[in-house]
Amino acid sequence: MKKLSVTLAAVLSIVSVVVGNGGAASAEAGAGKASLGIIGNYSDADMRSMRSAGGAGDALVEMNWSQAEPAPGQFDTQYLGSVAARAAKLRAMGYTISLNTGIQSAPAWLLQRPGARYVDQNGVTYTGGAEPNLIFGTGFRPLAVRYLTKVFQQLGTNFSLVRAGGGHWGELTYPSSEKQRNLYFAFDVNAARGNPVPGWKPGRPSPNGQAAKFLNWYLDSLTAYQNWQVTALRQAGWAGTVAMLYPSYGMRAGDFGKAVATNLAGTSSAEINGEVQRGYDATRQIGALKDKKVAVYGTWAENANTVAYLAGLARAKGLPVMAETTHVCLPSQLPAVMGIARANNLAALYIVRLGAADIVSNASYLRTA
């Protein structure tokens, strides 16, 4: 779901997680008692109120790759210093710090390189966001690792967790377009080298199973990107918890078959909603996780079905699960949201953008049996 955009040197969000120094959130930590967290810009007074009266305990600092590295290999020490200073101030207030590295906000010098942007089946280059094509543009990945390494060198590793996803709004996703729904962003020059059905496009007849072959490759490619992100963080020096962001409702049993039955023409329910085109196959993705310090993080905490679905996948892998509300969640929904968190043994529940007073007044529902 939609997240706050990063427009400042470091956008502050208050987030609560069950952690120790360096990060690992345990699956047991969420047993019936989710930790409360807040995402949004707040005054120091509100932060103190939500910490003391609402129980928030962790502050998320978000970064922007394009600000940190405005030229290849040249890092803005003033920007990095401002992020470090913000983190230090928050720690002095009693917060632990979680981090969003912002690799989805690539510098212009990278996006200008051939193959650095996604291309759909119509040959149209995606320019709706600054996320780099690291799914198929594997040659650009060392640049991301270099950036991440610099981040940990400058900021250290005293974080509760590091968020990952690498797509729009930092989630694990392919791009999407509001103008046209049935777009598959796997037709750039780098993607072409691995495409198992070259020349075939979604919506065309597939007498030899081209639709299924393409969709399997498409979804597997995003899954591989997920696992690379975890590996990249390890290579860069981060040994703690990685919170992988899984958006929306997700593909469910039967959605794959329905989509390929009509050759990915965009007519099935999951295609109409964009779940297939954006690669929201959490079953495949979570099942492929190998690192035991990954937290399954959903972005639609108001949806009981979605939270239960992700929680079940996480439990099967022995991983903790967290969730956050969408940006359109209402204060009146908080009691139900917190009940969903309790019912699914979330390790952490994050509330997005709501007023501090609303959060404090509803915080008790998270602990009510």
Automatic annotation (TrEMBL):
Keywords, in A-Z order: Glycosidase, Hydrolase, Signal
Domain Glycoside hydrolase family 42 N-terminal: 44-161
Gene3D superfamilies (alphabetical): Glycosidases
Signal peptide: 1-27
GO cellular component: beta-galactosidase complex
Parts of the chain that traverse the membrane: none
Family matches, as InterPro entries: GH, Glyco_hydro_42_N
GO term, biological process aspect, one: carbohydrate metabolic process
GO molecular function: beta-galactosidase activity
Keyword Signal annotated: yes
Family annotation (Pfam families): Glyco_hydro_42
Protein name: Beta-galactosidase
The organism of origin for this protein: Paractinoplanes atraurantiacus
Lineage of producing organism: Bacteria, Bacillati, Actinomycetota, Actinomycetes, Micromonosporales
